[in-house]
Specification:
β2, α2 and β3 form a beta-alpha-beta unit. The longest helix is centred in the last third of the chain and has 20 residues. The protein has two domains: 116 residues, Rossmann fold, CATH 3.40.50.720; 182 residues, Dihydrodipicolinate Reductase, domain 2 (2-Layer Sandwich). The protein is α/β, with parallel strands linked by helices. The strands form three sheets. Strands 12-11-7-10-9-8-15 form a seven-stranded mixed beta sheet. A six-stranded parallel beta sheet has the order 3-2-1-4-5-6, with helices on both faces. It has a two-stranded antiparallel sheet with strand order 13-14. Helices cover 37% and strands 25% of the residues. α5 packs antiparallel against α11. Bound molecules: nicotinamide-adenine-dinucleotide (NAD). The site of nicotinamide-adenine-dinucleotide has 23 residues, from loops.
């Protein structure tokens, strides 16, 4: 196996997880360089992960002859620029979602990616690498539940993140609830059906945090969708799960249903106490998708070695953003939106 020598940009909430995985948990991967604008994060990379080269700018890092791949985990507004620069330097690229902030910039970066077909490109739709979702996908593909009629998805962040989210919303950094939260569910709907979403109708309500109205942001949203093959999808997205991190998916078919995490349980433990029979719930995305983040990087390294492109490509990023934008437009205009 050829070793993939990574430089990572962004060592925040998710960047630290990817950095640790690339340094310690992914065979065939070496984390040789890291870039952040926060000096303490670079110290962490050096001291905790043994990263030899640290940089304050992305341009300096991609000039290093020691790396042949980058992992982009910077804020979403930097993704398109950093993908473009890394591709033009001849590097393999893993990037976090979203591919970009709007359809125009995504279309321009897709041209760059397509001009470098011998370099591996992967977009981090990590749920495709979660074992439960992969199992469910095999059941659906094997026809176990017949023809799909309805997909129901919940993607609700824990309310403990609300304070930092309100700050995030003030800077208009998230792209909105549907682009930030529903994008994974939109990708799952496309993945399970192999069909495109053609129209959406979205609604929203700010009940616990009415101040979000002034910021033009949403605490809870719901979107109803119809796909080209007439499958229906119902997506609920939110920021206010008081009990933890609620990601749940149900696929209803003509011969049966499949549910993934219909109670988002942390593990197999049951506690019996004065509240009754208590099952602890998963509390955040790093906990719920710990293995998926490792599995997707293992797949990226395999793809570099086997010279093949992974699942989770640039077109998936484009289609998911188109649908998320349509949801935002539908909510803002209070009307059904058809996707071009
Ligand atoms: N797949 C998922 O489920 C998932 C979950 C969380 C975040 N994300 C995505 O990951 C990305 C990062 O999110 P986060 O929550 O870790 O963000 P964060 O704000 O916690 O961290 C951002 C990092 O980028 C660095 N940074 C900022 N500007 C920079 C610049 N100009 N050059 C170099 N480094 C810079 C910061 O120093 C920090 O290390 C976002 O695009 C987000 O959408 C994906």
């Amino acid at each position: 196996m050829v070793e993939v020598n990574f430089g990572i940009v962004g060592l925040g909430r998710l960047g630290k997880i990817h950095a640790k995985n690339l340094a310690k948990n992914v065979p065939g991967s070496m984390l040789v360089a890291a870039c952040s604008i926060v000096p303490e994060e670079l110290e962490h990379a050096k001291n905790e992960l043994g990263v030899e080269e640290v940089y304050a700018t992305f341009d300096e890092m991609i000039n290093s002859p020691s790396i042949n791949a980058v992992a982009i985990v910077s804020p979403s507004g930097f993704h398109v620029e950093q993908i473009t620069k890394a591709m033009k330097k001849g590097l393999h690229v893993f990037t976090e979602k979203p591919l970009g902030l709007n359809v125009a910039e995504i279309e321009s970066v897709i041209k760059v990616i397509n001009n470098h077909p011998n370099q591996i490109f992967m977009l981090g739709f990590m749920r495709r690498y979660d074992e439960s979702y992969q199992y469910a996908k095999r059941l659906v593909d094997d026809g176990e539940i017949g023809e799909l009629t309805v997909i129901r998805c919940y993607g609700i962040d824990p309310s403990k993140g609300m304070e930092s989210f309100v700050e995030f919303a003030k800077n208009n950094d998230s792209g909105g609830l549907f682009a930030d939260m529903s994008i994974h569910d939109i990708d799952l709907v496309r993945w399970f059906t192999n069909s495109e979403i053609k129209k959406v109708w979205a609604l929203g309500k700010n009940a616990a945090y009415p101040e979000l109205d002034k910021l033009g942001e949403l605490e809870t949203g719901a979107a109803m969708m119809e796909l080209e093959d007439r499958t229906m999808a119902l997506l609920v997205a939110g920021r206010n799960a008081s009990y933890g991190y609620h990601v749940e998916t149900e696929l209803i078919g003509t011969k049966g249903s499949v549910r993934i995490a219909n109670i988002p349980e942390k593990n197999l433990v049951t506690i019996l106490n004065e509240k009754g029979s208590v099952r602890p719930l998963s509390q955040d995305f790093p906990e719920r998708f710990k293995m998926a983040f490792i599995n997707e990087m293992k797949e990226f390294v395999s793809c570099v070695n086997e010279k093949r492109q992974p699942e989770g490509n640039a077109n998936d990023g484009l289609q998911a953003t188109k649908v998320a934008d349509a949801c935002s437009e539908s909510w803002e205009k209070n009307e059904l939106v058809k996707i071009k």
